[in-house]
Amino acid sequence: MLVDLSKVKEAIINMFKVNMGLKDGESVLVLTDYPHSNFWVELGIEELSDSLRRSYLARVVYEVGREFFRSCRFKFLAYPMTGMHGAEPPKSVGEAMKSSDVVIAITTYSLSHTRAREEACRAGARVASMPGFTPEMFEPGGPMAVDYLRIKEVCESLVKELSNAESVRVRTSYGTDLRFSIKGREWGVDTGLYTRPGEWGNLPAGEVYIAPLEGTGEGTVVVPKGWFRGLKEDLVMRFKEGLVVEVEGGGEVGKWLKEVLGLEPKIDDEVHLARRNLAELGIGTNPNARRPDNVLEAEKILGTVHIAIGDNSHLGGRTEADLHEDFVLPKPTLEVDGRVIMEEGKLVLK
Known about the structure:
By secondary structure, the chain is α+β, with helices and mostly antiparallel strands. It contains nine helices and 18 strands. α1 packs across α3 (about 45-70) and α4 packs parallel to α5. The protein starts with a helix and ends with a strand.
């Protein structure tokens, strides 16, 4: 069975009611992407199965919503996968998003950091971006089965602690030591509650985030094996002046990343330099998030931080790129302006 409806139906209804605040008469667009011909050859069996199951889940969400919220107008739209997080979808998808009150994007490749998502929000749409979402996330005990009002409180407390900070250092016992400036940048919150026009974020949710100041990132990030899809050995990224300058290890993931970033072979054009940008620091706050190899869930795990590369123009930064890729670090020590905010994965708040 691709999706056990009995385990997910209640959470789907709750998502529309609580997370999206769906009202009578509103229009809802449920989006998904599907593997076209090239992906049937290029993807492994597990990845292909995962993406097909996700598209099926999106259709289930559409059907449950249409059945339960009869006063609302539901539309389902599937489009070919772009192959990269942050790449723009077809123009027709962007137009459909802009003309909807609520958008549920259950996709393999993220729409979060795209102009299509940004323009939809500017037009008043409330958007739940759910790249990599799995049916299990809807099930009891999963990351959707949390008190999102409590998550909102934790996120807002963190932002209050971190406001007006200027410098950040991230360290781990397994080799990460990265410093950068956040002077003049504002923290964002992803609470999972998108009830007002133009609000957006991930589901499952639970993080605060900020865009590092371009050109300031210095040091090393080590992503442990198992903490990224297909990562079977530790991945090392070295940053200099805000850009990834070297990638070591990581097996097949490392090889893919070197190619995408234009490091091997070396390509220093505008596209590849933008992809190498240190784009985001995020702090997870969801106590039910557990799965380490699914980035959508892993970056929300309480006791983790994540570092992203590529586009940050939708987070308050200045770099536009066709890539936004997150890497989650478990049990980090996070220092802000020299003050320890998280020590080996435990938040330290006043």
